[in-house]
Structures are given as structure tokens and as C-alpha cells.
Amino acid sequence: xxxxxxxxxxxxxxxxxxxxxxxxxVEDVCLYxxxxxxxxxxxxHVSFELARGRSLAILGESGCGKTSLAKAILRxxxxxxxxxxxxxxxxxxxxxxxxxxxxxxxxRWVKMSMVSQACMNSLNPVLKVGYQxxxxxxxxxxxxxxxxxxxxxxxxxxVGVPLPFMERYAFELSGGMRQRAIIAMALVANPLLVxxxxxxxxxxxxxxxxxxxxxxxIKQELNLNxxxxxxxxxxxxxxxxEVLCMYAGQLVEHSQAERFYREPLHPYARKLMAxxxxxxxxxxxxxxxxxxxxxxxxxxxxxxAERCPRRFERCQEEPPLxxxxxxxxxxxxxx
Amino acid sequence: MExxxxxxxxxxxxxxxxxRWGFMHAGFVRAVDGVSFQVKLGxxxxxxxxxxxxxxxxxxxxxxxxxxxxxxxxxxGRRIExxxxxxxxxxxxxxxxxxQDPYGALAPFMTVTRILKEPLAINGVDEKEHDERIRAVxxxxxxxxxxxxxxxxxxxxxxxxxxxxxIARAMILRPKLIVADEPVSMLDASVRVEILELMRKIxxxxxxxxxxxxxxxxxxxxxxERVFIMYAAKLVEKTDVKEVVxxxxxxxxxxxxxxxxxxxxxxxGRFRDIPPxxxxxxxxxxxGCRFHPRCPHVIKGLCDVNEPPEFEPAPGHFAQCWLYK
Lengths: 335, 325
What we know:
The complex is a heterodimer of chains A (335) and B (325). Chain A has a single domain, classed as Rossmann fold (3-Layer(aba) Sandwich), CATH 3.40.50. Helices cover 30% and strands 22% of the residues of chain A. In chain A, strand 7, helix 7 and strand 8 form a beta-alpha-beta unit. The interface between A and B is large, with 48 and 41 residues.
């Protein structure tokens, strides 16, 4: 990075070089919401670790708690939270212990940023795009005006938006360019971790491939960590080093990409992979019968048991997360 | 007129007028510009294109929801002209429409029974038959046991069930053609295949024709026979589904196939070869071939000047590209 990044770049760069241990450690995180008819267990006792320089894809059907998990990590919680417990360490800091103001000043956007779903439509229509991208640096005096805009130009170059676009308004940009501008905004404070929630699902196939190319380039150049949340399994394979598969609010498998995309372990993950149509292979996609259970009243025992082709008596009890070779699976088959 | 042709579209143009200050002519958005194709009885075709390529406008014109600027549409050999009310009523009995967003397409205050009864009542089907037909169609889309669903409201159904209900509504008048605008794009991967298989089964059982619109080439290739690739208001390539994957001819189709990943761990380190730029504006499309500013095989002095006609390099495989003259 250039020398202009005095305040924020330095801190992040130093921690990137000196710290050891996992970048992100999530321990037993629960996030329950109050609803009119009960408590929705959106994230139910999820634990995982993410090593430095690795990218993680979180996969699952809609309503399985992917986005809630991201929101729990970033502490972007709605008002109807019933339980929010567990421990989250980013770069060795216990995030749950920080008060809201410290978290906002020192963590959110500075160490960890998020590109949320279809957020290209959330650019402010009356501000120039360049200003909006520089804004995370301008608030809280994180950098001077000159410095902030210099850094904004730099991230525009990285994500592949022509520099004159900084002077434009959001409506003058195409969907793909807007999405790139949002990614630039997430990168501007030089964070350690960027969470991408369905970053390309609202875009066209060619634009999507272009953005994935840009993200790969960013990953190589900047050595940062991505968490990619998506239900598009084929696209997730473009960025993932590791895969975390969720079902009904729980983590069911955490594997390396090589294993997951070839032969996942958990029966649900297998079914999910079989449902993905492949363009270049002649296998007919299958579907999973039944529907995922309600998160209001999840069934006892393994939550996938009802739809599982390989269920046996043991499945009436809830399986713990078993370690199997280099992976973790929540299934009695791997006891 | 050839045998078996259910729908024939010839040189269809749908332009929308742009106005300045509400009354001054300021050009046209050429959403569909010179599109010709035929759909045979019992055949499923897919129109693949990016958003803004005009595929929804094409479909709306076929349905009579948008007025064509030029060209002709014939259904069962009968020309649909000038959108006369009698023509339209007849056409809409014969064409079912499956919308993209099932929740948005179903009235939230109507029960399943009322939703399905409405088309029957409007089109003067004998009231004694209603109940029987509603039960039959719900059975067909596997919303069973039927009794459980008759009095439900759309919000009580899951996304997949809602889409089944939309299909049931499209089917209830026993149409000959079903047009589906991205029928599964709002659904999860695990449910998608189920819905597409259901549509395929209904198509075979009733010898229906189906027109799908989608941008997802990889799923629909199992569920249709022919595919039309649409780029900037034109059908640039028309061919069999198998052929388009193995032997794409138009450079745009090649780029499209290049952009679709298969779920493989090797993807992570590999950059995709994607043409730069964005699809052109349909108000002022480029001269010559509309793909030429992005095309890697552009021929100077030809592609940027003359619009390519439709060539047929292999039997039944059409491409609008000068490479195949």
C-alpha cells in the first residue's frame, strides 16, 4: 500500500504481519429473534475458525441462517433480538466484550466490512460516488480529506472502476459498476476481513463473472480474507478455500474446498451438491424432497433426519460436530 | 404454414417511445428488434439473455401485454393482429403465464380456490365444472392432499408451493402454450430442479409447448429442446440445447458459456476470459453487429458497418454473425 495511508493502513498492516493464530474465531454463537409466534433460532450454536489469508464460503438454502450469522459477526443486529451469545474473536480481540461505540470506531469498517445483498441499490442518490466511497475514512477523522480521496482512487483502480466515475452519481452507473463501487467502499479502510453477502446474485452472468474476476484479483493483491455468503454453489467455488455449510440455523459441515466441491461428507451437503446443474457434465440434477424445518420449533435430534436418505436410530439424538480428517461434520455417520 | 407450428413470430419489433416533457418525441427504446422464430407443438424452447436484452418485452408482446411496433405473430396459424379484444381473449385462453416472483403474482387476500376459480369464471367455464377442475389441476402440480390447500392463502405456502400454485393457475384453462418468465430464479437450488421437472412432466403429459425465459443456461438445458440466445433485442443464435453447449457459434454465446462456472475447487485460482464492457443501450444501439464493440473476433470494416443477417452454418443452427457467411 502507498505511504499516504498513515493512520489506518499501518495498524492493519502491522497486525497482518505480526499476529499469529486464526484471524476469526467464532465460539458457540447463538442469535435468536423474537417473533409474534415464538422464538426464531436463526443461528444455533455455531463455532468455526478461519485462518489468515483464507476465504470462506457459507452455503445453504434461504432461511438457514447464513445472513444472520454474518450480521452476528458484524454486530448489525435488529431490535427484536432475544438471545445473542457466544464469543467472537477477530485478530485476537474479543468482539463481544467491546461496547457499541468502541466497536463502531475500531472494528466495523476498519477491521471488518460487509457488502450486503443487493446493496448496489443503497447508494445515496444525491452524493457523488467518489465521496461515498471515501466516507468511511472521513468520519471519525480516520484520515484527512486529501488522504481519503487518494485512497478512494486507489480502491477504484483495484476494483476496476474508471476514475472519472468518482465524480458521477449512482444513477449514472450500471449495476455492475455500482456493485464494484460498493466493494470499493468495503475495501477503503483496508480491513482484515470482508463479508460478501450474495455480492453478485442480482447481476447478470457476464457482469457476475467480471466481478468475481475482480474479487480474485483483490484476494491475490491485498492478502485479505473474504467470507462469501451465497446460495449459488457454482459461483462460490470461484472464491472459496474453505466451505461452511449451514442447515436450519446450524453448521453441518466445514471442509476444505477441494473436498466439498468434489465429495462433501454430510448427507445434506451431498444432496445440495447433487442439485447443482453442471454445464459441462452430463449429470441430471436431483432435488431434495421435503422442506427445511421451521426455526421456530426445530425438531429434536438431527435437523436433517427427516429428509435424510441415510438416517438410522442414532439420528434421534442431536449429533455433535465430529472431526473427520481435516473436516468437521455434524453427523453420526462420522462418529 | 408448416405443420405442427404452434407459434410463429416473424420480424417482430416492439419499440417503446421515449418522450421529453411528456409530449415531445425523443427516440425509441428498441426492446425487441427484428425477432423471428417458431415454436412447434409439444416443444420447449428457452430464451437466454441478460437483463435489459429484451427477453421480457418479447414475452409480453407474445402475451399481448405490449403492443408490437411491427412484424407479425401467428398462433395456430391465426394472425394476432391489432390486438382486437376477441383475438386477445382467445389467445389468453390458449397461453398460460408463469410469472417470475410467485409471491408478487398471487393476490394475498385470495384463497387458493379463489385464485384458481377466477380464470374459469372470467372465461365462462360452466360453474359445475369448477370444483372438479381445481382439484384436478392441484393434483397435477402435486399440491396434495388437495383439501389442505384449498382454503389456504398464498402467504401460508412455501416459495416452492407458491410457484406450483402459479403453474396451476397457468394450467387451469388447458392452454396449448405456457410462457414462463424466469420461473425458478426466486427459488432455492434444491427446489428449482423439482419445479422444472414438474413443468417438464406437465409439458409431456399434455403435449404442451413451453417458452422459458432465463439467464441460467446450466439448469434449463435439461428441460428444453431448443435455445435462443438474445443479445441487445436480437436473437443472435438459435439452436438445439445440446449443440449450444458443445458447439457455440456466436462470440456472445461463447462468452456466456465461459462465464458460467461449474462447482469445482480449481475455479478459485483461475481468471475467466470475459469480454469487457456492458451491453449496449437499446435507444442508440451500435451500428453493424451489436456485439462488435465487445467482440474478440471483430472484423474491421464489416462487423461495425453492416448488420449481419442470419446464417445457417449447420442445419438447424442459426447465428447472426459475419464469421459464418
